[in-house]
Amino acid sequence: MKIAILSPEQSQSSDNRITVVNGFPMYQSTGESRNTQSFPGIWFPMICVAGRELNPTIVKPFDDQDLKENPNLLEEYFTRDVIKAANNKYLLQKLGCMQCMGISIAIDNLSSSGGLWDEKPKLRKIKKYFMSRHSEWLPVIPPVESSVETLTSCTSANDWLIENMSRFNYREGNVYAYKRRFQEYKITTRRRVGTSETSPLLGRRIDTRISRNKCHCVIL
User: Fold this and answer.
1) What are the tens digits of pLDDT across the range 18-74?
2) What is the number of other CB atoms lying within 10 angstroms of the CB of residue 188?
3) 116 phi and psi, to 5 degrees?
4) Are strands 16-21 and 187-189 parallel, antiparallel or unpaired?
5) pLDDT of 68-96, one tens digit each?
6) Which of these, 143, 134, 159, lies nearest to 81 by C-alpha position?
7) Which of 88, 139, 140, 174 ranks highest by number of CB atoms within 10 Å?
8) DSSP string covering the chain, please?
9) Closest CA to 220 of 200, 191, 204
10) CA–CA gap between residue 152 and residue 135 (Å, rounded)
11) CA 157 to CA 154: how far, in whole Å?
12) Where residue 210 falls among pLDDT bands split at 50, 70, 90?
């Protein structure tokens, strides 16, 4: 897994580590959020970086306003049992969708000494539940490469994401148009009995025979 350090020249914030897994750009939280909750070290999805060239902002799939405008937003991206098990709308908002939650946990699992998801009892409980019930969303991730590139501007960061196969390919323009592309990773609940399908994101077989309301991924 390739890692880069996002270290804009004029930023007053701590540097972020970023990567791309299965086409999803991810950043490692510094825990400096103004929200009362923080998750230092946990990996979350991003779309791109945008704003001032030498002091850009990480653009995330959702923000607090999205959840206010659509209180049922999370049900479009997570199965109901995961929402209930997590019992934390802010955490799920940051994780974005089932695929990215699986990626975050899979990156954490690379640590031989126990990851950051295991340090807090609440996160450990959520991780255990996700891995036991939704392991099909856990991708296989190669070890972290030793060489790490430092990115000092908005342009260099977005170019690096694109070179590493980001799904969003943002360089400039209306960033909200790119945020809307995240809608492709919604889930839906349909009655599908006695069938199985291949996840378009992970390339793995997902058994949907377990129940008539098994959730599966669709591209809208």
Assistant:
1) 999 999 999 999 887 766 688 999 999 999 999 889 888 999 999 888 989 999 999
2) 10
3) -70, -25
4) unpaired
5) 999 999 999 999 999 999 999 999 999 99
6) 134
7) 139
8) --EEEE--TT--SPPEEEEEETTEEEEE--S--SSS---TT-EEE--EEEEETTEEEEEPS--HHHHHH-TTGGGGTS-HHHHHHH--HHHHHHH-SHHHHHHHHHHHTT-TT--GGGTSHHHHHHHHHHHHH-GGG----PPPPS-EEEE-SHHHHHHHHHHTT-SS--SSS-HHHHHGGGGGG-EEE----S-EEE-TTT--EEE--S-TT-EEE---
9) 200
10) 36
11) 5
12) very low
Rounded distance between C-alpha atoms, residue 76 and residue 97, angstroms: 9
Angle (CA) 183-189-190 rounded to 5° is 120
Q: Report d(CA 6, CA 198) in Å as an integer.
A: 34
Q: Are 168 and 177 in contact (CB under 8 A)?
A: no
- Counting beta carbons within 10 angstroms of the beta carbon of residue 57, is it exposed (0 to 12), middle (13 to 18) or buried (19 or more)? middle
